[in-house]
histidine kinase (Methanospirillum stamsii), 491 residues
Amino acid sequence: MLRFESVFKGYNTFKDAVLITTSELSVIYCNPALKKFICINESTPCPNLDKLLEIISEQNGEREGIRHVLTQVCSNPEWTGTHSFLSEEVSIHIHSTPVPISDDGMMGRIWVFSETFPTIQTDEQFIQSEKLFRMVFDLIPEGIAISDLKTGKFYEVNEHFSRWWGYSRDEVIGKSAVEMDFWVDINERNDIINRLQRYGHFHLIPVKMRGKDKKIKQILFSGRIITINNTPYMLSIPIDVTNIRQYEEKIWSLASFIELNPNPVLEINEYGSITMNNEAAVKTITYLTGSSDLHHFLPDGMDEILDAIHTGNETTFVREVTIHDRIFLEYIYITNQYRTARMYLTDITERKKVEYELLRKNEELAAAYEEIMSTEEELRQNYDKLVLQEQKLIENQKKLRMIVDHIPGIVLTTDTELHVKSIFGAGLEKLGLLPNEGLGKKIEDVFVNADSGMLQAHEKALKGREYSIETHYKKRDAHLFVSALSEFLVI
């Protein structure tokens, strides 16, 4: 009852007795004039409706009329009417009608108990009642309208109607919502009328409507039939949920992003309980383990994560978890607003295999590099040895040449094909040859008409045998020594 006091406190100054009940006839407000009307102390709580009507009946000797009003209200929640009776030359009027009593379209009923004395007082009382209902009507923070049920023309609108739809009262009174182009879909209007005719009311029906600016609004529409002067009218209350719907769409969009994610997504609270998961998480764990136990996804070292959730420390963690032969990378985000941890998992098994293979190849390359470096060092050392040997060979060759140049003979070297590679010695002069004359030529081309024994000696030397013969060349006796490394000819 306290929640309605601020809304209905304007009735405290009314001279008429005012009672407001719910649609189930539970009392939610009564003004001081009502307590005075039934002769109870202002500090005394207002009695329930049955008790209140019983008090009025006893005070004024009127029972049947009051019970008739109560019967009408109980049998028809949309009933509006007035019952009057005479008590000690004073006319008592009980007027009752349904009214909205909250911002969410909740309907209740207002009862006005008034006394009529002289005609002047009756007129004042009527004016007072009109003011009362107008105040109630304009207090409702929604764009309320009363329209003729048959023609659809607006009969009355409240102050908030103009703020809602952009039309002044004079612009809409006597015109229908169809004429004013309120309805985006006329089929929705037809559905509303069908509900009214069938049930007498409708509650929070989603429709689309537009005002003077032609912007489409998402509306939850409520209404019911009321009777004024024996004419049926529709009392309608729209609730604009356009912004709410937009927020809902954003929320659903975010939710669908998680649900449509092909990778597992989980959310846990500070106790480690899984509070949310997408379908991919269930499918993945069922495929891997044969069960739907999502706790397999939780990584080791959960204490640190749970502590961060508990303290509201907005941070991130990256973990890896292995389930059978699959490896998952977990990106874990802690939210301080909701005190939860959102886990986004990605299967990195194939990537890990590639990483392992790259590491193995890298190790093989490193080993090959070491082997190449070792071989290169060995080759360098061998090269250095060859250089030393070559230098030594050149020195020995110089020494040999110095020796040979002083003996009466010839030193001849050939390749395996018996081509002359070098020829020198003091004996060349006797044969009419110069040092290294005929290099690259066959022996028989250098030593023309040489003894066949000389050529045979070379061939035997190529087979690895040392050979020494006595031969003749240009009418000179010669001693020939031949080996695989050298030939020494003395003429």
